[in-house]
Amino acid sequence: FLSQDSLNTTLGPHMPVHTHLIFADPFTAHRHMNISNTPSNSSTITGFILLGFPCSRHGQILLFLLFAGVYLLTLMGNGSIICAVRWDQRLHTPMYILLANFSFLEISYVTSTVPNMLANLLSDNKVISFSGCFLQFYFFFSLGSTECFFLAIMAFDRYLAICRPLQYPTIMTARLCTNLVVSCWVLGFLWFLIPIIIISQMSFCGSRIIDHFLCDPGPLLALTCKKAPVIELVFSTLSPVPLIIPFLLIMGSYALVLQVVLKVPSAAGRRKAFSTCGSHLAVVSLFYGSVLVMYGSPTSEHDAGMQKIVTLFYSVITPLLNPIIYSLRNKDMKKAMQKFLKL
Where are the bilayer-spanning segments (predicted)? Predict the structure, then answer.
C-alpha cells in the first residue's frame, strides 16, 4: 500500500484523490483508484500511469528478463551490421550504406520504448512524467515514420539497381544517397511535431491511467477534458500519410522490378534478382503487416491486450529479426559479419 504522502508525491498535489489508500499493484490500482473528475490543466499534472503488463511480481520479473534479452540481441545484431558496413570496403555502396543507416534507426526505434518498459516492469507506481510521456510519444512515432521513408528509398535503390543497372552508378551517387538519408530523418521528425505540440497543450481530467506500455495517442486523447474533434481529425489525417505514401512507392518500385525480372530469359538471372530484393521485401512485409493490423482497422476492434501484442511485434520483435533476415539472405553481408565477428 502507498501512504497519503507517497500518493501525493506520485500523483501530484494538484490532483485531488478521494481515497487514503491505494493498491501498489497496477491491476488492483486500475480497479480501486478513484481520482476526482475535476478538470486539471496539463501544466499541473506530474505524469500518467502506464499499466504495461498487469501480472504478478514473478511474472513481471520474467517479462523483464525476456525483454531485456531481446533488447540486447537487437542492439548486438543491428550494431554488427553497422560495424560490418563501416569496416568492410566492399560494402561501401549505396545499398549497404542505406542498410547501415536503417540498422541505426532500428536501434533508436527500439530504444524509444524498451528501456522505459523495463523500468516500468520493476517499478511499483508505474508513473511516467508528463514530459516523458510526450517525448516518448514524439520519438516513437517520428522514428516509425522515418522507418517508413527508409523502406521506400531502399525499394527505390533496388528499382534502380535492377531496372536501370547501367545508369545506376551515375544516378545513385554518394551525394544523392546522403540527401535521401537526411531527408528521411528530417521528414520523419517534422511530421508529428505540430500534432504533438497541440496535444501536449490540452487539459486532462479524471483518471490518468493508460492501459498500454507506451504513450499512445488513442488513450491520451481519451483522457482529455473536452473532446477535440478538429485535433482528432488533424491527427487521424496526418498519421496515415507516412505509412501510405511510402507503401505506395514501395509497391510501385517492386511492380516495375517484377515486370523487368519476368523478362529475364535465364532462371539464374531471375533468382539473383529476386534474391537481391528478398530481404527487403521480408522486412517490409513484417513491418507493414503488423502496422496495418494495428492501424488499418477501427481501434474498437482491438482490445487492450491485442494492441499491446501487435505494438510489441512491430516495435520490438521486427528490429530483432531484421539483422537475421539481412545476414541470412545476403552472402556479402554474411561474409562481412562473419569477418567482423571472427566466426
Answer: 61-84, 96-115, 135-156, 176-198, 243-262, 274-297, 309-328
Q: Tens digit of pLDDT for each residue in 59-75?
A: 999 999 999 999 999 99
CA distances from 305 to 54, 211, 235, 312, 340 (A): 10, 9, 23, 11, 40
Q: Give me the count of residues in the chain.
A: 343
SS3 56: coil
Assign domain 57-205+227-341 to its CATH superfamily: Rhodopsin 7-helix transmembrane proteins (1.20.1070.10)
Instruction: For 206, list phi and psi in degrees, rounded to 5.
Output: 60, -140
Domain boundaries, given as residue ranges, for the chain: 57-205+227-341
SS3 label, residue 127: strand
pTM of the model: 0.80
Distance CA 285, CA 289 (A): 5
Q: Quick one: pLDDT band at residue 6, thresholds 50, 70, 90?
A: very low
pLDDT in tens, 276-310: 788 888 889 888 888 877 766 555 455 777 888 88
d(CA 45, CA 30): 18
Q: Rounded to an integer, what distance in angstroms lies between the CA atom of residue 189 and that of residue 169?
A: 30
Give per-residue pLDDT as tens, 258-270.
888 888 777 777 7
DSSP 94-107: HHHHHHHHHHHHHH
**R_g of the chain, CA atoms, integer Å:** 23
Q: 123 near 172, Cβ under 8 Å?
A: no
